[in-house]
Amino acid sequence: MALTSRTEITTLAELVAIPSISGNELPAAEYVEHVARELGLAVVRDETSVRVSVGDEKAGPTLALASHLDVVPPGDGWTRDPFAPHIEGDLLYGRGSGDAKASVTAMLHALGDVAALGVTLRGRALGIFSYGEETRNATMPAARERAGRLDAALIGEPTNLEFAVAQRGLMMVDLLAHGDQHHAGYAATEGRSNAITLLAQDLAKLSGIASARVHPVLGVTTVTPTMLESGVSRNVTPPTARAILDIRSTPDWTHQELAELLQAELASEVIVTSTRLVPCETPAGSPLLAAAQRARPVARTYGSPTCSDWCYLKDLDAIKVGPGTSRRSHTADESVNLSEVTAARAFYANVIQEYLR
C-alpha cells in the first residue's frame, strides 16, 4: 500500500525545483527514489536510471513506462526563475515542467496507484527514468540492459496525451564540395572549379530528394540544410564548401539507404556524422495501442516530428504519450497544464491494468 498522501502536483513542483541539467541528474534521481519508497514501490537507482516496479516479471510481460530526468539549460528570456516552480491557474512554470518531468511524475504516481490497489497483474510494470536524453550521452540503452525482459513501452514525452504512433529519426550529414583555390579574377576565365558553386548545385537538388517513399503517418523524409561554411578571402575561390544537413527520416528508409541515395544523386562528398536516432513506429495490431485506446478513447493518433528515447526501444510494442505540449519544450517560460498531469496519472494507471490484466 502507498505510504503517503502526497499529490502529483506536489511531486512535480518539487522535482522541477531540482535543476537536473543533463550530466547533473543525481539529486533528481535521489528525489525520485525517495518518492518511490514513500509510495511503497520497489526501486533501484544506479548510474543508468531510477527503475521503479510493481508486479512480477515471471508472471507475464513487462510494460515499461520510460521517460528521462534531465533537462536542457534554461537559456535566456525567462520572466520567472526557471527552477522556482510557479503556478498560475492551470499552468506550472519551470524548466523541465513538461519535458519531461510531468511524464515522470505521472508515471511514478500511476505505479504507486496500481500498487495501492493490490490487484494481481499478469506481469510487471516498470518505470525507467533515465539520464542524458537531451544529449549524445543518453543512458537508456544501458538502463535497458539492466531492466530485464521488456515487451512494450509507453514513452513519456509531451504529446498532450495524444498517441504518437510514429516518430521521425534524425540523421546528420556533412556535404563537402571540393574546388580549386584560385584568384577570383582568373578563376572563371581559366575554368577553375568553385566549391561554393558546386555545393549550391547539390543543395538545389535536395528538395524532395527522398519523396519517392511516403509513410502513411509521417509523410516523406525531409532533408534540410542548416549550416554553411566556406571561404578563404573575399577575392579567392575556396577549395572546399561544407553544408550540414538535418535529415528527419521515416521508417520507410534506413539511414544506410538515405546515405546511398545522397551519394548517388549528389556530386559532393557525403559524410554521415550521426545515425543513432532512428525512426520508430508502433507495430500493426499493437496490443499496447489497443489498451491505451480503451483507457483513453478520446485520444487521436499522429506522427511525432521530435526524437526521444523511443529510438532505443524501437523493437518493442510502443507508443509515445505524455502530458504537456511539445512546442513549449526547451522554451523560455516552459510550462505544463496541471490538469493534464492529473489526467496522465489516471491514464497510465489504467493502461497498466488494461495491458497486464
Concise summary:
By secondary structure, the chain is α+β, with helices and mostly antiparallel strands. The protein contains 9 helices and 18 strands. The protein has a 6-stranded mixed sheet, with helices on both faces. Strands 11-13-9-14 form a 4-stranded antiparallel sheet. It has a 3-stranded antiparallel sheet with strand order 4-5-18.
CATH overall fold name of the largest domain: Aminopeptidase
Low-confidence stretches: none
The value of Rg in angstroms is 24 Å
Molecular shape: elongated
Instruction: Assign a percent range to the helix content.
Output: 25-40%
| H and E order | HHEEEEEHEHEEEEHHEEEHEEHEEEH
Helix/strand/pairing class, anyone?
alpha+beta
CATH class of the largest domain: Alpha Beta
Mean pLDDT: 96
- What is the number of strand segments? 18
Describe the overall structure:
By secondary structure, the protein is α+β, with helices and mostly antiparallel strands. The chain has 2 domains: 237 residues, 3-Layer(aba) Sandwich (Aminopeptidase); 108 residues, Alpha-Beta Plaits, CATH 3.30.70. Helices cover 28% and strands 27% of the residues. It is built from 9 helices and 18 strands. The protein has a 6-stranded mixed sheet, sandwiched between helices. Strands 11-13-9-14 form a 4-stranded antiparallel sheet. The two termini are 19 Å apart. The mean pLDDT is 96.
